[in-house]
């Protein structure tokens, strides 16, 4: 029987398998499977920020199968004790760009990057800005616990321009920058490298793909006389 990708596979591991402590919002499992299922049983590299007790690293190791290499990143040196077969632990500071850059020198380019780390606005921004370029073409970047964007103690707050949720709203403009007629707004690096952005409760997911200028065509038999502009588009599609 094929997996339904509705979260039930990971939820079963979470509820019924033996593993170290995992702390997750239950709705996240469906989001994970929706975007990660195609990577199962393939030779992938995954990096997750936020090791905690190491349980989620064991979950990814189990879910993705024997060809997966799992890399956990945390600021707590004690987490180094949680390394095991196919699970490597790295000690780094998400607020320190140099610390993040060192990860790119020791960890191969990744198929999946998950930010479940410290959840402050600065940590989330720095991590995305430094690690997006380390994600492979066709890869997935997932940042969770965006609830902290609404919490002042994490640097957030409703409509706070410095919050990560407000930062990610700009991704929508980047996806659509091709159609801007304004001189001050043009395609940017994210326009050229992001295929899609998905928002869920508490999560944002980006899929990476090399993008080119959108192309539209008209095909088929016209039902009515075409305008000059329509005729031009129609002729391009022949």
Task: Summarize the structure in words.
- The protein has helices spanning 8-16, 28-36, 55-64, 97-106, 121-131, 164-175, 228-236, and strands at 45-49, 69-74, 87-91, 110-115, 135-144, 194-200, 203-208.
- With 238 residues, it is α/β, with parallel strands linked by helices.
- β4, α5 and β5 (135-144) form a beta-alpha-beta unit.
- The mean pLDDT is 95.
Q: How would you sum up this structure in a few lines?
A:
This protein has 238 residues and is an alpha/beta fold. Helix content is 29%, strand content 19%.
Task: Give the topology, please.
Elements: H1 8-16, H2 28-36, E1 45-49, H3 55-64, E2 69-74, E3 87-91, H4 97-106, E4 110-115, H5 121-131, E5 135-144, H6 164-175, E6 194-200, E7 203-208, H7 228-236
Parallel strand pairs: 1-2, 1-4, 2-3, 4-5
Antiparallel strand pairs: 5-7, 6-7
Helix pairs in contact: 1-2, 4-5
